[in-house]
Amino acid sequence: MPVDAIAVIAEPTRRRILDELRRADSSVSTLVDKLAMSQPAVSKHLKVLREAGFVSSRTAAQQRIYSLEPAQFRALDTWLAPYRRLWNTHLDALERVLDSEENR
N or C end of the chain: which has fewer CB within 10 A? Predict the structure, then answer.
């Protein structure tokens, strides 16, 4: 996972674009309409997402259609896994303590 992957998706507009693409592949104009943003702004964010490997584009007629690329999300998930396990362990321990307090 590139070091800047988290910085790329930390930007709220990029997360909104990813959320839209999670629902369906979309053209720039569709994203402009759904996000109520200018075409240059959407294109700028799509370029950042594409360069970071989160999205790809294909040409259909005279439009570019954007879609999610799962590899970068898998890399991010792999990087997050140890942190998820750590928090799950701590939350499980907290649950046991709260359950034992409740049973007293």
Answer: C
| CB neighbour burial string for 68-99, b if at least 16 within 10 angstroms, e if fewer | bbeebbeebeeeeeeeeeeeeeeeeeeeeeee
d(CA 63, CA 61): 6
d(CA 43, CA 28): 7
Q: Which residues pair with 27 in a beta bridge?
A: 65
Domains of the chain, by residue range, sit at 5-79
How many helices and strands in the chain, by DSSP H and E? Answer: 5, 3
CATH number of this structure's domain 5-79, picked from the four choices 3.40.50.1980, 3.40.50.720, 1.10.10.10, 3.30.70.1890: 1.10.10.10
For the segment 38-86, what is each residue's pLDDT rounded down to a tens digit?
Answer: 999 999 999 999 999 999 999 988 899 999 999 999 988 998 999 988 8
